[in-house]
UniProtKB/TrEMBL annotation:
InterPro entries: HAD-like_sf (IPR036412), HAD-SF_hydro_IA (IPR006439), HAD_sf (IPR023214), S-2-haloacid_dehalogenase (IPR051540). It comes from Pseudoxanthomonas helianthi. This is HAD-IA family hydrolase. Keywords: Hydrolase. NCBIfam families: HAD-SF-IA-v1 (TIGR01549), HAD-SF-IA-v3 (TIGR01509). One of its GO terms (molecular function) is hydrolase activity. The keyword Hydrolase applies. Gene3D superfamilies: 1.20.120.1600, HAD superfamily/HAD-like. It holds the Pfam family Hydrolase.
Length: 240
């Protein structure tokens, strides 16, 4: 299938890099930090208990579902408070968390394909997470970046897709959203009027009975190849 597109919006976590190794690193870094800076907290909240605390904090603060940075910081504050530690250490703990969060290991296909895609059309990062493209070193490849925290609502809300399209200056029907999650990425984009590419990294099954995405690939390389095969470039009218 071919169709004209003028821009791409791109998910980050589990699309350009897997998030589970990042999550494991964050847990180790914070545990080591608690042991050094607040031993009572480390004793009360070892890694498995800290994981449970984080889940509790997330569940108790649904109004912050779009702001993972605030939830992460609140988790550190809560651990310090409930263990009798110094809550003033939360800023320091959050900075360690954020540094670990932005140490990423790309999927083998991601970087080369991203360079190819960004050379063809403007690309906007569209993420519910809190990765920082400047810290990671990818900012030059992106036209812009929109976080759910910044926008005030998270995928699959239509408004965040529309905000990305407005920033790109391209109508939704001419934007292709690319991401790994069937609901948050592909179906959310389709409901918002964008074209959708499901990047199947093997972590999610497509919902039974849901309409299929416009494109389905297992690597970003395949998407770059698709773009290269468009007649006369991405703005051309399709011949199929």
């Amino acid at each position: 299938m071919s169709f004209p597109i003028r821009a791409i919006t791109l998910d980050l976590d589990d699309t350009l890099w897997p998030f589970p190794p990042i999550g494991a690193r964050i847990e180790r870094v914070l545990d080591d930090w608690f042991r050094e800076r607040s031993p009572r907290t480390a004793e009360r909240f070892p890694i498995h208990a800290m994981r449970e605390l984080r889940e509790r904090v997330f569940a108790e603060n649904p109004h912050l579902v779009h702001d993972l940075s605030a939830l992460r910081r609140l988790s550190i504050e809560t651990a310090l408070r409930e263990s009798g530690g110094d809550v003033a250490l939360a800023d320091e703990g959050y900075q360690l968390f954020y540094a670990a969060r932005n140490q990423v290991e790309f999927y083998p296909d991601a970087l080369d394909a991203l360079h190819r895609i960004a050379a063809r059309v403007p690309v906007a990062a569209l993420s519910n997470g809190n990765a920082d493209l400047h810290t990671i070193g990818l900012a030059s490849l992106f036209h812009s970046q929109i976080h759910a925290r910044e926008h005030g609502a998270a995928k699959p809300e239509a408004s965040i897709f529309h905000a990305a399209c407005e920033r790109l200056g391209v109508a939704p029907g001419e934007v292709l959203h690319v991401g790994d999650h069937p609901e948050l990425d592909a179906l959310g984009a389709m409901r918002a009027g964008l074209r959708a590419c499901w990047l199947d990294r093997g972590d999610h099954a497509w919902p039974h009975g849901a309409p299929r995405a416009d494109l389905e690939f297992t690597t970003l390389t395949a998407l770059a190849d698709w773009l290269d095969a468009l007649p006369q470039g991405p703005d051309a009218e399709p011949n199929a």
